[in-house]
Amino acid sequence: APSALAVKGPVASLEQDTLYGEQQQNEILIIDDDVELVAYLKESLERQSYYVSIALSAERGLRFFYESKPDLILLDLKLPDQSGMEVLNQIIGKAKKERIPIIIISAEQSKEIVMEAYALGVMDFVTKPMDMDLFIVLIGNRFEMKREWQEAIIIDELTGAFNRKHFNQTIKQLISDFRRTSRIFSLALIDLDHFKKVNDTYGHLSGDEVLQAFALHVQESIRVEDVFCRFGGEEFALFLPNTDAASAQVVIRRIQETFSAKEFKGKNEAFHVTFSCGISEVTKSENEADKLVEEADQALYASKHAGRNQTQL
Ligand code: GH3
Ligand code: MG
Ligand code: MG
Ligand code: MG
Description:
Blueprint: E1 6-8, E2 27-31, H1 35-47, E3 51-55, H2 58-68, E4 72-76, H3 84-97, E5 102-106, H4 111-120, E6 124-127, H5 132-152, H6 164-181, E7 185-192, H7 195-202, H8 204-221, E8 227-232, E9 235-241, H9 245-260, E10 264-265, E11 270-271, E12 275-281, H10 289-305, E13 311-312
Parallel strand pairs: 2-3, 2-4, 4-5, 5-6, 12-13
Antiparallel strand pairs: 1-3, 7-9, 7-12, 8-9, 10-11
Helix pairs in contact: 2-3, 7-8
One magnesium ion binds next to strand 7.
């Protein structure tokens, strides 16, 4: 049945709101020629809200792997055109690099084959016929593992803010949203004032604690849709969706006031830390990421130059 070779699952919940830079991460590619089993798997997995793509041959499986970027792969070892092991050899490198779990589903279970598959780097080897309840729990675990990994690679370890990688994804996403829907946003670049002096006077450990306290303070002061990132060192960036520059300035000035009132414990005396900020707003003429950052950076420089602890546009 050639028309059944490619069956793309429904994309029912695409409208569901996601965080910027985060995509829907639950697409499963099944490469298996057992039509009956595949239909059963597809039905069972779609009931769990996964999107399921099906390839009934190695050739189509390989094509889907490259084209549709699945998040998890179920691979049969016996396929009509190539062996599953051959397919595995072709996709394992990229799958490992992109952390796409591969689960072998096979009627064959010789020790040699299982060992070979594990040695190549497959996550699991499941023998057919599988118990669907157990199989679904296994798949759930693999997706959770993947989700944790994806979260970990965009979080700055010291402060818990998003990292530079997520900053880059977010600015791209927001700019493309703006081009499509004219939904504005502001970018605030933040740099702690005289931070070298904090380190020199109280030590790097205290400096780290200030960075952590600062990040926590900002996180507690912003809305859920705002995206707070550590840009590097003692520099941070805050995206404020649906906010013009003037409103963003009000938000940051409020944070500036509350944060500068915070007391840090030095050796003998308490000390305070301030920060400077520069804000830019996406507009029709200035909708390039580089320009947006550059503009905020210039405003930040102006804030520093004007005596620090300020927020300029
Ligand atoms: P300005 O007000 O002009 O911004 O002065 P500054 O001292 O903050 O600026 P400068 O760029 O000269 O110094 C930044 C300091 O931040 C130097 C660097 O050692 C320190 N720093 C960067 N990352 C970290 C970190 O993760 N932990 C600690 N403790 N210090 C850091
Ligand atoms: Mg087969
Ligand atoms: Mg700096
Ligand atoms: Mg600084």
